[in-house]
């Protein structure tokens, strides 16, 4: 699945000079050998691959707030012995060479699922789906004392409780945004408002709302590897939007483009999820689609000009509320 055709990048296309990156890494205690390579895939961050003393590392440049940046790193620290994630070796806020927060992370071998799934046979997709279900179950079993957003040290610094009530009120807030009306049109906006109201029981019946939720759980953030003929998840990347909330958000995100997905994902993923301790209601897919509307509505209330992102969000909303 080609996400570059669906979304615009928010991070400016600024490419920092090799000299600046070299100075930054040397000051951080690394001795980069050869070219520092910019990687594709990041939509709001920049990622570079470099080698030092025979080992590959990732340099991540973040333009997020300090809270969001440190929140992401705290999640990675909490889950590094539980889930397949990169390890954070060093970080710094407002590195002067690049005027961004930076983190140096371990490099994980693998290929983004988005770049390979279209070429894989059914058996490989089913194997990946089982691996996905296993790791999603492990992730969603990590629970917290409340819903909300992470800050330094893994503390929840912005609570979102009670989850169902706050989420419903956030829907109403987004529905009142002038940019949403402008970009959706009055007819679709009315359908959306009606859909949110009629299907509110999907929100009220969520089985869990204080669990680790990745919140950007899709093929571009999943590395896969073929290990001795067995395809599996190598790493779950980009935790910048992670929070304590409803696991159904991750299901809604992954199955957002279900008509474009291989039909060999759903059954093995769900079976593995349930077999490894995950909890799903009978209407889990409808719950996921309901919650996924939040992201689409947020996209459409974003300042600036992001034509691909806006077109994608409109299409997802229209397909959901029809």
TrEMBL record:
Residues 36-275 form the Aminoglycoside phosphotransferase domain. Keywords: Transferase. The lineage of its organism: Bacteria, Pseudomonadati, Pseudomonadota, Gammaproteobacteria, Vibrionales. It comes from the Bacteria. Transmembrane segments: none annotated. InterPro entries: AGP_Transferase, Aminoglycoside_PTrfase, Kinase-like_dom_sf. One of its GO terms (molecular function) is transferase activity. This is Phosphotransferase enzyme family protein.
